[in-house]
Structure formats: C-alpha cells, structure tokens
C-alpha cells in the first residue's frame, strides 16, 4: 500500500486518482504514524518551498519521512521532489529534507517564459526503475519556476528549457528516494507508466 | 523543447455537452466525461470545461463532472465559467481540476486573481479575456500600449455581451502582475468564424506579458493551428467546434503542426 503524505500542500487527489486508475491501493497520511503501515510513500506538493518545509516540520512529517525513507521507496512530486534536497533558495535559503545531495534554485532562461509550464520532452541520463520504458523524446507535463541542481549520478531523466532541468532524480545509483519535477499524474500514459513502475517497486 | 499545446474546450450545461458531438459512440448522451476521455485518447494536451450553467444546481453537477473526469483523464484539466470566489476555486480544485479560469468576476473584482494565486498558487489561475477590436477612426488616441496607430482591443464580460471599456493588453499585464499564471485570450472578432486565430491581438498580448498565452477563437482548418504558432509566440491553441463536430481530431492538427516544424507532443 502507498501512503500519500497530506501536509496541506497538494495535488493529493490527482495522485490518488491516478493510483486508483492503475489499481494500486493508497491511503492519505495526515499524521506521521499513518506512514508506518505503507510500503511506499509519495510526497506531493504545490506551492512555495519555505511554506511546505514549515508545514512538514510543524506536523512532525519532516523527521518521520527521513526515517521512513531509509526503509521504503519514496517518490516526491513537483515541489515534493524539490523538498528532498538539502536546501532551497525560493524566498531566501531554507533547509530541505536532505535525502538527495543538491539544492533548488530559480530557473534562469533568458527569453523563455517562467514558469516552465507545459509538455517538455525528456532524455534518459541514467536508467532507473521508475523510468523503465521511458524513451528519449517522451513528453511529460511540467509546472515550476524553480529547478533542482544536483550531480549527474542523481539524475535519471532530464529536460532542456534554456538549461538542463533534472526531471526524474534519485539519491544515487542504487537509491530508493526518487523525485519527479514533472507531474506523472498529469502526464498521460508516459506519466502513468512511471507511477506504475514506482508502485511495483 | 516545450511543446505547443492543443486544447479542446467543452461547453457544459447542466452536466451535458452543449454543442453537437460527432463521436459516434457518444453522440446521444453528450456526456462530458466520455468526451474528455475521447479527447485524451486523441492526445489532447489539456482539457477545458466551460460551465455555462447559471444555476446553483448546475454548479454542483459541474463539480461531479470534474470529479468523474479527473478519475479517468490524466492530463491537466481546466474549469471555467461562473467562478466568482476563492471558495469556487477550492471546490473545483478539490474535485480534481488543475487550473481555474476566471473572466467577468476578475474584471469586476481584480483582487480575486491575487487572492486565488496566494491561496492555491499562480499555476492554477488562468485569466480568461474576451477581446474585441474597437472600431474608430482615431485609433492613435485609443491606443495605450502598442505602436501609434496600433489597434485597440476592449475586454468584454458576461460572455461577450458587455464592453467593460478596459484595454485588453493593459488588462492582461495587470492580470499577470496580480498573479495570474496563464492567459486564455479569446477573440470575439474571430470566434465562430473558423477563419483563423486573431494574430494581431495575440501578438499584442504576447509581447506584453511573460506568462503563457492560450489562443482561442477562430480555429478552423488544419492550417490555422500551425499558423497561429508560426505567426505568434502563443503557447497553446484552444478550439471547441472543430473537435465537437469531429471535423478534425487533435491528432490531425498535431500532424499538420509537426509537418510544419511546430513542436507538439
């Protein structure tokens, strides 16, 4: 069973709908102990990095997620993926969950619109279990103004938008902490495939 | 590279698609959920529901439609029509909408844009603008933005019935500064004509803002969609009747775009 972490910032319903559609059982985890019964975790998120981290810390989720992620696969989505990193620079510097080395900073893409919104193609940088079946040129749906900055070993899929945009990240080659900068639950069949791969880990 | 989006729009009244639908299997029911699923199969990049119901009961029906669609369609879903408060935003977002478009209500009370953006994020606030070129000999005097002599476009409300007197380009800029994440720009001059999108008005707005702009009104033959992307920096093109009547599928339009070098999914 998959626990979808509910800390008041999220595309919770969409993720639940996609998992239902794929036939995977999920629960909404509104308190940290709700995560214990699950064998996988999804951390959604829409909004700003500092507010989300404050909610995660005040609810006790921040500490509990770090503990749980040592034992079970975790997938962060959009802002949820960014929160997995060491720090973010949205409205000043904020400490993140620190599960993947790297940080989050503004997209700098002169002449291009911000947010980076819409369907963008990705390429495979490093194969990873969730990205199984994803090919260079497949398109997924992004909506974000900040990007992840991390070493290449942590990047599974990447997009180009004036610069390199890590699209699917993980904590090193064998890691089970994953982050999707795009919205797999809104990325048509390519996105559903990634969610299915994660759910079947 | 970011793909140009092709967006079918469904006009829904009391839970039924209003315009005739030519999908063989669902012609009789006009079920918006089935229509949205069909558009998804045709590789629509996003789906827009425009609620043209006036009653409260109709609104509840629309929420059910959104909820059912969100269980079956996994591309972004935008809902517009009659959205007046941040509570309306919340109801639709909770039902599974990803973006909410506001039109007349934002003209009457622009603070709605900022309040919704602060509560739910700019990414879900779409400012829908219905624009119409202003007739007048002395265009220079009218113009507030573009080059001298450039045409002026006014913002209309109430489904195109009422001239607000606002200048389209100024209103688009104001909407962006208030926190709108996207602009859905419908030309009343080209809407329904199928003679092509309003290139002039689109360029005027695209030059003024740095958020995505969706072109609407005038989509007709296959060429018109590729053309709007060749002649303007618009990010997406929306149409209703060409899809409703089955004139073209979303795929047909994308194939034409692709053949002309326009990036599509």
SS class of chain A: alpha/beta
What structural category characterises the helix and strand content of chain B?
Answer: alpha/beta
Radius of gyration of chain A: 15 Å
The count of domains of chain B is 1
Helical residues, percent of chain A: 10-25%
What's the main sheet of chain B like? Answer: 8 strands, parallel, barrel
Average pLDDT for all residues of chain A: 95
Q: Total strand count of chain A, please?
A: 13
Q: What form of chain B results from the Cα inertia axes?
A: globular
Q: What strand order characterises the main sheet of chain A?
A: 2-1-3-4-13-12-11-8-9
Topology-level CATH name of chain B: TIM Barrel
List the helices and strands and how they pair.
The complex is a heterodimer of chains A (201) and B (265).
Chain A: E1 2-5, H1 12-22, E2 26-29, E3 40-43, H2 49-58, H3 61-69, E4 74-77, H4 79-82, E5 85-88, E6 94-95, E7 100-106, E8 116-124, E9 139-144, E10 146-149, E11 155-160, E12 164-170, E13 177-180, H5 188-199
Parallel strand pairs in A: 1-2, 1-3, 3-4, 4-13, 5-7
Antiparallel strand pairs in A: 5-6, 7-10, 8-9, 8-11, 11-12, 12-13
Chain B: E1 5-13, E2 16-17, H1 32-41, E3 47-51, H2 56-70, E4 77-80, H3 86-95, E5 99-102, H4 104-108, H5 111-120, E6 125-133, H6 139-142, E7 153-157, E8 162-167, H7 168-178, E9 182-187, H8 199-208, E10 213-216, H9 222-231, E11 236-239, H10 241-244, H11 250-259
Parallel strand pairs in B: 1-3, 1-11, 3-4, 4-5, 5-6, 6-9, 9-10, 10-11
Antiparallel strand pairs in B: 1-2, 6-7, 7-8
Helix pairs in contact in B: 1-2, 2-3, 7-8, 9-11
